[in-house]
Design the sequence.
């Protein structure tokens, strides 16, 4: 196998916990990041994709779609984005433990460094991820970095 | 090196296989328990207002069935004396199968203005209290404002039309039970604690005016969404239309019309303008509301007109967020004669965000002709 094949294979392996949406349509994740940044901050602070298991986001995004008057396509892209960024923090953590305890379709126990995750996400989607990354940072960092909505 | 590559390939295959396995086992239904809660301390600058600790919890239950159906419900638990109070904030079925439309049926938050539908949860609202327009109660009757947070039973159609860029045109239209006399509601079900509380809240509102006792307010208090028994055949019809450029700009116009008496004679109308603007960490929002309520004044009908507005600005600085809100209620008038004194309120607050949904809020409210009030609230969105 060529080096390129190895890289592709490893990239898919690392990204596989990001969910099927990420693998099937990476452009949707980029669109979802933009819709997320443009709409969620209209009412509240950005919530991290790691706060809930993947399946929980299906219901929560439906709930939010009605509040924000999103189109179906926009809601699906936000869901893809949240699920794609729903990875356990480096070293595990309470969110990952909680998701695992819930028995929902949480990501496998693969720990992906933040930098690698962001780089791979940007590589796949081909769109600027600054807004999405800022939205996932803790409040203090997000505000200092000019997060969408500044909340 | 060859052994390493084989190992990596095996790992990759295993991980991809695990994901595929999850896909084939993907459930078509989901249940999520979310919501919010808060702990609050409120005190006053004089002895005329008690200093209280209180708490509330509002669980939100979400059920999905496939991609297109969602059932969502929010309960609100509180205390009244020795009893636990429960309010059904909303219980609705959403059909999400259309690209640009949603059909909603059940009891839902009315898209009248913006605060009541989207901003009143304690982890979202940047101050411990709601704007003076909407009072401070959720029981269906405005405790000290023009309207409560409106929730009612009926059907709703929501439409959105993307217009390029981040711009979109939003429309929401609904038909619901509509308001009815709060006293009539309590009489129908005198054991219903919520209805009784609504009447008490209305009485407290009327009596809170130092210059006008309850008997000087001619129009009777009405209740929204506190009962599924309609008192007439008339339904409340309302709509909200707006333009949005997320996340920086939104502007909406809202209106509703209903008859609230058993004989379908007495009108109740409301209108609102709402605008929001965000830039460079600043958030500025404001709303203006007008209500008109017909009532029987002897041998003829008269109209009580009330109006008010609020404006709020907040600026996020790291985890801190100072907030200033100004609220104003105009004098309530009948035939241009004042029957309810106006009121102004200035709230200064400072929030500290531990996490994106966990703020601690400190606020001081300055009220014209009433006690100034201090609030300390810890909210939690989950």
Sequence:
């Amino acid at each position: 196998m060529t080096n390129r094949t190895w890289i592709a294979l490893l990239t898919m392996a690392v990204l596989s916990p990001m969910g099927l949406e990420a693998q099937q349509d990476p452009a949707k994740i980029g669109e979802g990041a933009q819709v997320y940044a443009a709409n969620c901050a209209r009412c509240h602070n950005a919530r991290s994709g790691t706060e809930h298991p993947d399946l929980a986001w299906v219901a929560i995004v439906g709930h939010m779609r009605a509040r924000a008057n999103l189109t179906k396509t926009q809601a699906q892209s936000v869901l893809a984005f949240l699920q794609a960024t729903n990875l356990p923090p480096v070293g595990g953590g309470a969110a990952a433990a909680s998701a695992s305890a819930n028995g929902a379709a949480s990501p496998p126990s693969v720990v992906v460094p933040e930098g690698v995750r962001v780089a791979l996400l940007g590589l796949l989607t081909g769109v600027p991820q600054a807004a999405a990354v800022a939205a996932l940072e803790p409040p203090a960092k997000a505000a200092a970095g000019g997060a969408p909505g500044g909340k | 090196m060859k052994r390493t590559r084989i190992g990596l390939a095996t790992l990759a295959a295993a991980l991809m296989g695990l994901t595929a396995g999850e896909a084939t086992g993907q459930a078509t239904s989901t249940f999520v328990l979310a919501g919010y809660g808060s702990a609050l301390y409120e005190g006053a600058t004089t002895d005329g207002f008690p200093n209280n600790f209180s708490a509330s919890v509002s669980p939100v239950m979400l059920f999905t069935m496939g991609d297109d159906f969602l059932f969502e419900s929010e309960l609100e638990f509180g205390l009244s004396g020795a009893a636990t109070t429960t309010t059904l904030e909303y219980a609705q079925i959403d059909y999400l199968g259309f690209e640009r439309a949603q059909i909603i049926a059940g009891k839902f938050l009315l898209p009248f203005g913006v605060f009541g539908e989207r901003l009143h949860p304690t982890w979202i609202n940047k101050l411990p209290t709601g704007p003076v327009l909407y009072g401070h109660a959720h029981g269906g009757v405005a405790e000290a404002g023009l309207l409560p947070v409106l929730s009612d039973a009926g059907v709703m159609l929501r439409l959105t039309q993307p217009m390029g860029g981040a711009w979109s045109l939003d429309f929401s239209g609904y038909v619901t039970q509509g308001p009815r006399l709060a006293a009539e509601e309590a009489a129908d079900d005198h054991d219903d604690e919520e209805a009784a509380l609504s009447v008490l809240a209305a009485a407290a509102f009327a009596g809170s005016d130092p210059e006008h006792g309850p008997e000087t307010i001619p129009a009777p208090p009405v209740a929204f969404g506190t009962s599924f028994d309609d008192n007439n055949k008339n339904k409340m019809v309302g709509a909200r239309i707006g333009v949005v450029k997320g996340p920086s700009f939104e502007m909406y116009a809202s209106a509703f019309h209903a008859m609230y008496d058993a004989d379908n004679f007495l009108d109740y109308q409301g209108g609102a303008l709402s605008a929001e603007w965000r830039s460079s960490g600043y958030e500025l929002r404001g709303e203006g509301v007008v209500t008109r309520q017909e009532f029987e004044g002897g041998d003829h009908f008269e109209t009580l007109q009330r109006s008010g507005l609020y404006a709020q600005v907040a600026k996020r600085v790291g985890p801190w967020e100072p907030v200033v809100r100004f609220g104003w209620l105009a004098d309530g008038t009948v035939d241009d004669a004042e029957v309810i004194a106006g009121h102004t309120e200035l709230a200064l607050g400072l929030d500290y965000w531990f996490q994106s949904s966990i703020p601690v809020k400190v606020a001081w409210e300055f009220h014209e002709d009433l006690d100034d009030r201090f609030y300390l609230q810890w909210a939690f969105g989950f």
